[in-house]
């Protein structure tokens, strides 16, 4: 091991470190300029072009992209457009994942006709779990039983274990056959 380092090696290492720092600085500056300048400006001008309602705005879009009129305000409006678009996209992806993994909300299953319920029953058997019964409309008011009579019988049906229904789990196309054990 030498007692001291040659000056050429020190200068070479310093120049290499400075080159790396300049490269990173240039890269991050261009990324920031693109996301905080070019993307919002493009989004705002395309948004304005699409929602003006004239064909001439579509034809002059390439020239409008290079225009320096209202540059700062267009960038701010474009940041708003990009933020709203990304938020909507992320929210919809999140909602899709919630529905796929946790099942849909209960209000989506209201129109499902269960096989042990007669047609037109509209969930009268589900009164025991806090749901409000809905009486189907009838032409003859005397033929329709009042809700009170149905309330007395609903508790008996719900307590019977043979009438309990388990909702089927929807098939997930991402899980191959044979991975689930029944």
Automatic annotation (TrEMBL):
**Pathway linked to the protein:** Protein modification; protein ubiquitination
Tell me which UniProt keywords the record has, alphabetically: Membrane, Transferase, Transmembrane, Transmembrane helix, Ubl conjugation pathway
- GO MF: ubiquitin protein ligase activity
The subcellular location is:
Membrane
Annotated transmembrane regions: 22-39, 75-95
What EC numbers are recorded for this enzyme? 2.3.2.27
- Biased amino acid composition, Low complexity: 120-131
Protein topology in the membrane? Multi-pass membrane protein
Its BP terms in the Gene Ontology are: ERAD pathway
Q: Single GO cellular component annotation?
A: endoplasmic reticulum membrane
Recorded catalytic reaction(s): these are: S-ubiquitinyl-[E2 ubiquitin-conjugating enzyme]-L-cysteine + [acceptor protein]-L-lysine = [E2 ubiquitin-conjugating enzyme]-L-cysteine + N(6)-ubiquitinyl-[acceptor protein]-L-lysine
**Region of interest (Disordered), residue spans:** 118-144
Which of the seven top EC classes does this enzyme belong to?
Answer: transferase
- Which PANTHER family does this entry report, sorted A to Z? E3 UBIQUITIN-PROTEIN LIGASE MARCHF6, SSM4 PROTEIN
The molecule here is called RING-type E3 ubiquitin transferase
